[in-house]
Each structure stands twice: as C-alpha cells, then as structure tokens.
Amino acid sequence: MVTLVLLPGIMRHVPAEKRLALFEMIEGRFAVQARISTVVAGLTGFYMTHELGAWYRFTDPGFWWMHAMVAVWAIFTVVLYVAEPLFLHRWFHERASHDPEGTFGLVQRMHVLLLTVSLVTVGASVLGAHGAI
pLDDT tens, position by position, for the chain (133 residues)? Predict the structure, then answer.
C-alpha cells in the first residue's frame, strides 16, 4: 500500500533528475524485507498445505484460489529473485535515466496491478478457506 502513496509522491514532488536516486535508495531498504517476506510466505504456505493434508485441493477446480495464491507468490518470487537481479534493475535504471516520467508511470501501473491481483487473491482465499466460494 505504501507504493500507492510513495510512487505518486515521488512523481509529483521530486524533480525528474532526482527521482531515480531517491527511488533506488528507498527500494534498496525494502528489498531485503521483501525477499525475506516472500520466503516466509512460501514456507508457511507449504507447511500449512502439508500439515492440513490439503494437497488434494490443487486437483479440485473449486479450490482455484489455492492456485491463485501460488501464482501470486510465484510472480513475486520470480521478480525478486530472478528478474530483478538478472535484468530488471539494470533495465529500470537505464530506462529511468532516459525517460523518468514514462518509467515511473509504468512502475506505478505495474505495482497497482500486482497489488490489485494480490488483494483479490487474499479476499478470495479468505472466503474460500471459510467455505464461501
């Protein structure tokens, strides 16, 4: 949710030539936390599925929200552990150096999309775990 405030604030109040440095400083402080949180989410999801004997749910279309949770986790994991270190950081830095407005607009739209998908998945998972869907 911080992203919904942080990115528009940076775009609105920070001059284009200073945005990249500020964003990378702030993002760098949260990168470790995001990576740890993703690992913890994966481990706890695996643990709960194993302890509850809920593997069968992945074969039942009625438990589609289980697939959605794994998909959201996989997207974040791939972005944080594969795409970002291999090419995303370099691509972002190069693009933001040439087109800060367009790059930060794209980053903001992608964050909003991922947050929306995540929130819908959380809501569906809560309802599904309580038998509502």
Answer: 555 677 888 888 888 888 888 888 888 888 899 999 999 999 999 999 999 999 999 999 999 999 999 999 999 999 999 999 999 999 999 999 999 889 999 999 999 999 999 999 999 999 999 999 8
Report the Cα 64 to chain-centroid distance in Å: 20
Cβ–Cβ under 8 Å, residues 113 and 36: no
Q: Which amino acid is at 11?
A: M
Indicate the DSSP class of residue 74. H
- Cβ–Cβ < 8 Å for 16, 101: yes
Cβ atoms of 15 and 95 closer than 8 Å: no
Q: What is the pTM for the complete model shown?
A: 0.85
CB of 14 closer than 8 Å to CB of 26: no
Report helix, strand and coil shares of the chain as percent, to nearest 5: 90, 0, 10
